[in-house]
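User: When convenient, might I ask for sequence and structure tokens for a protein?

AI:
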Amino acid sequence: LGLIRYFQEQYDHARELMEESLALAREMGDRHSEAISLGNLGLVAFALGDYERAATLQHEVLLMRRELSNQSHLATTLDKVAMIAAATGSPIRAARLFGAADALRAEIGGTVLPNDREILDRSIADARKQVSDVAFETEWEAGSVLNPDTAIDYALDDEWLPATTR
């Protein structure tokens, strides 16, 4: 229900429902559902322009994804960190992370969910506008050869975040 409210741009209600989901996941000890709930809360923070909170949540999810070894969800989380990078003026980092996520999806035969495609495409276009095509493509390619652990380490390095979001 939280995601439905998110896509309806009812962010406060979405956050309440996602926080309830997170509490239940933690109560049950379901790490996979906990990671999903945290990632979704990060989406809400991103939509509200709270990039510091969004980054904090996605970093927590990345650590969980490493532990859980779920490649499909890892790709989605890398995309979310890339979106934050694009929105905070770090298009080079965004391109590399988008490339890593795209390559990981290709390797496992994964896809971007239809609801996520519009947001992702908009964020990729935003990052592209901030740098030359050559720079963007070079970084995308550099990301496409990262192994999952290296991509996670790269995403967790928050030195690229503006000081107000660290």
Summary: The first helix runs from residue 2 to 7. The chain has a mean pLDDT of 93.
